[in-house]
Amino acid sequence: MFFERHGGGERAILVHLDGQAPEAREDPQEFQELAASAGAETVAFVSVSRHQPTAKYLIGTGKVDELREQVKTGEADLVIFNHTLTPSQERNLERAFECRVLDRTGLILDIFAQRARTHEGKLQVELAQLEHMSTRLVRGWTHLERQKGGIGLRGPGETQLETDRRLLRVRLRQIKARLEKVRSQREQARRGRKRADIPSVSLVGYTNAGKSTLFNAITESDVYAADQLFATLDPTLRRLELADIGPVVLADTVGFIRHLPHKLVEAFRATLEESASSDLLLHVIDAHEPERMAQIEQVMAVLTEIGAQGLPILEVYNKIDLLEAVEPHIQRGEDGKPQRVWVSARDGSGLELVGQAISELLGEDMFIGTLRLPQALGRLRAQFFAAHAVQSEAHDESGASLLDIRLPRGELNRLVSREGLQPPDFLREHTLQ
């Protein structure tokens, strides 16, 4: 890192602004959950009624004085604002409070930095952090305006601040180059799955909606899941076998949140593209959350930003164990297709309905019919049995097999092509009406 961060502890005062326009308003309860997820010990929660933010402090000078006293009496190391601060506002508030000041974006970045596990995830977080903090590089430096001098330091006449900015630009280029390589590798893997006709399904949803718990329950995995915001950061892919469909790739992705910082969306674009290129999105929704409609809107806004708004979506209403008199069930649209599934990932209620709904939505292009296979195509017959596609078998007078087949048309074409046959011609010659 080419910037200094304050030492300090975790005792924090949380500042929330009331009275803002609806599109800029933040949820105070979610703010407290974010702070707890970051490991902060909340000393005080201060709600400020402010309709018109000020350019210098965001809040009024009277409230700044009041908060300064609370910082001293509460021995707070940190003041966190539930809003975006400009670099100048952040510096002015730090001078006034004489402690570290963090805004909502910085708080979310800190949580992401704690959660990153893979090399790719750490690179993505570092990219977002460096881009966010590059505008705040002057903070905390008192010697940066002087040019370097002295023995061994004479030369370009570059200030320390200019040196740090130059090193920062170099590091940003390095990270972006590595992430571009990751992006191309993901794209290559996706093309491979497309060639193999393996459908992909991505779990998306608001943070803490229960995506990872559902992912673990469906795939029998042990992905980290916890009752906290952004428990999952690194994407996880698992192979899943579904009736009538065969193999499916299921992806668990990072959760969304209200006003997700644009820098994070950009940094995680390689990960989010996993969702944008899926055949089906499972939008996991916390059925017990009073603000679920607002959360649904936020998820759809992020999906629009990454170009995934046009993909088929199955809504999975999770946590019905916290609701009264709600049983697992599938809600269907006017066309009879599944639209919503009501389940509880924690106790496993209704999980089979999720698989059924996925199969129905992905298995629209199914081949259902009877194939007549002469004895010369015995190897193809064996492959149909291995794919569990044969419903029943009979034989005609010539000894040819009459197979009642049910499987995705793409899988049928793949098996037929493997034998050197052309799928359209093969179906015309071997299908019994």
UniProtKB/TrEMBL annotation:
* Chief localization: cytoplasm
Subunit comment: Monomer. Associates with the 50S ribosomal subunit.
In the UniProt record, the gene name given for this protein reads hflX
| Residue ranges of domain Hflx-type G in the record | 199-366
Family classification: Belongs to the TRAFAC class OBG-HflX-like GTPase superfamily. HflX GTPase family.
Annotated organism of origin: Pseudomonas quercus
Which residue stretches, if any, does this entry annotate as coiled coil? 165-192
Key words, A-Z: Coiled coil, Cytoplasm, GTP-binding, Magnesium, Metal-binding, Nucleotide-binding
Q: Name one Pfam family in it.
A: GTP-bdg_M
Q: Give the subcellular location.
A: Cytoplasm
Tell me the function of this protein: GTPase that associates with the 50S ribosomal subunit and may have a role during protein synthesis or ribosome biogenesis.
**PANTHER family (UniProt xref):** GTP-BINDING PROTEIN 6-RELATED, GTP-BINDING PROTEIN HFLX
InterPro entries per the UniProt record, alphabetical:
EFG_III/V, G_HFLX_dom, GTP-bd, GTP-bd_M, GTPase_HflX, GTPase_HflX_N, GTPase_HflX_N_sf, P-loop_NTPase
- Protein name from the UniProt record: GTPase HflX
Taxonomy, superkingdom: Bacteria
